[in-house]
Specification:
alpha+beta; Serine Threonine Protein Phosphatase 5, Tetratricopeptide repeat; Arc Repressor Mutant, subunit A; 6-stranded mixed sheet; 3-stranded antiparallel sheet
Length: about 400
């Protein structure tokens, strides 16, 4: 390593990005390109940073596998900031394995944390947990220790394990203070605010009661039959049933739960589920069929009794019924929750995170744009979507989760 490369690396380690650039700004060799890419990423020039890192990776020879792997990790971190998930995860996994085999534990850990944060963004919570399980923050440098603890805290929050989340946040706060990095300290503060902001509303008796995350967790553990409109599930005790892929049945269940302990009228259920103003005999027949399917799904948890006017929900064991609604009104809650992080998302990345088609996401974005809730920047393939940061409540319960929450 020559003196200019060494000086640039020291400057980056000390946080002096501009001084690092001065050392390597006019050089085109692979190590200089890699350092320039890292520096440009720190300055927020992410597209340029990715281009430089790709060139650096191609510039390292076949005998420089460790250097190429480091470029892959740095490029993956830039792609994460760009919300670009087009690269297959196996590429980052191969780089992590190469770094670990070569004894570069610091960069192998960085690769692991990038992969875990990618899984969290995509709602793959079990995969994120598996990646974070071997990480021991004891003995780590303050900055990576803070990042690891923040990832563990987010995983715990998404799983409503609030004691574990608070412990991880305490570790992250201490490490961020030791690192002296303002951006890390601000991220910890934002994560801690999630614990005290309203996360959902409990509907009942014509009113909506705001609930914070610990109150949501207490309600879910209370044994009540909880119809969760944030994550489209129904839960009674430890039994949870996902209805995200059965939206019509979930709409019917929510209508029944909101009317509990009274009955829900047939016309009301038809209007909500089928979005019709007037019902005829064919719609009533279809309602009977869908109610039958819902009865089968709820077997052992609740009965649905037919009444002269409609249907009534009767939970097993005399349980109470509770409805959890999102903290904000309107549809496309998962989409708004993803965009609320302030990053610019591509349509393809949103579709991947939501498990939906790009065409479906495009239609929802067009409706939200017409309502003034999101805006687009760029054109064609460079088009990205932004939303104003949400204040006063957290959307953490609306974030997608491709696997069951533990």
């Amino acid at each position: 390593m020559d003196s200019l490369i060494a000086a640039a690396a020291r400057a980056l380690a000390e946080g002096d990005t501009l001084r690092a650039l001065k050392h390597v700004a006019l050089r085109e060799d692979a190590p200089a390109l890699a350092l320039r890419g890292i520096a440009m990423a720190r300055l927020g020039e992410l597209a340029r940073a990715r281009e430089l890192l790709r060139r650096a990776g191609r510039g390292f020879g076949a005998h420089e596998a460790q250097a190429r792997a480091r470029c892959v990790v740095a490029e993956a971190e830039v792609a994460l900031a760009l919300r670009d998930f087009s690269e297959p995860p196996r590429k980052l996994a191969a780089a992590m394995a190469a770094l670990q085999a070569g004894g570069d534990r610091a960069n192998a850990l960085q690769a692991r944390l990038v992969a875990a944060r990618r899984c969290l963004l995509l709602g793959r919570l079990d995969a994120a947990a598996a990646l974070l399980a071997p990480v021991d923050t004891d003995g780590l440098a303050p900055a990576p220790a803070a990042v690891a603890a923040l990832a563990a805290a987010e995983l715990a929050l998404r799983s409503l394990r609030l004691d574990a989340a608070e412990a991880a946040l305490a570790q992250a706060e201490q490490a961020a203070q030791q690192a002296g990095i303002p951006a890390l300290q601000a991220e910890v503060a934002r994560a801690r605010a999630l614990l005290i902001q309203p996360a959902a509303r409990r509907l009942g008796a014509g009113a909506a009661q705001p609930l914070r995350l610990h109150e949501v967790a207490a309600l879910l553990a209370s044994g009540a039959l909880v119809v969760d409109a944030c994550r489209h599930t129904v839960q009674a005790g430890t039994t949870r049933l996902g209805l995200a892929r059965r939206p019509l049945l979930f709409t019917l269940l929510r209508g029944l739960a909101e009317a509990w302990p009274d009955e829900a009228g047939r016309e009301t259920l038809i209007a909500r589920a089928f979005r019709l103003r007037e019902a005829d005999d064919s719609h009533r027949a279809r309602l009977r069929v869908e109610i039958g399917r819902l009865r089968a799904l709820l077997a052992g948890q609740a009965e649905i009794d037919a009444t002269p006017r409609g249907y009534a929900l009767r939970p097993a064991g005399g349980r109470e019924v509770a409805v959890l609604a999102p903290p904000m009104d309107g549809e496309a809650g998962e989409l708004i929750a993803l965009l609320a992080d302030g990053a610019a998302w591509s349509t393809s990345a949103l579709a991947l995170a939501l498990g939906a088609s790009q065409r479906t996401v495009q239609r929802e974005l067009a409706a939200l744009e017409a309502a003034g809730r999101v805006r687009a920047i760029g054109q064609t393939r460079a088009r990205r979507w932004l939303a104003p940061p949400l204040t006063g409540f957290t959307t953490i319960l609306l974030l997608p989760a491709a696997l069951p929450l533990g």
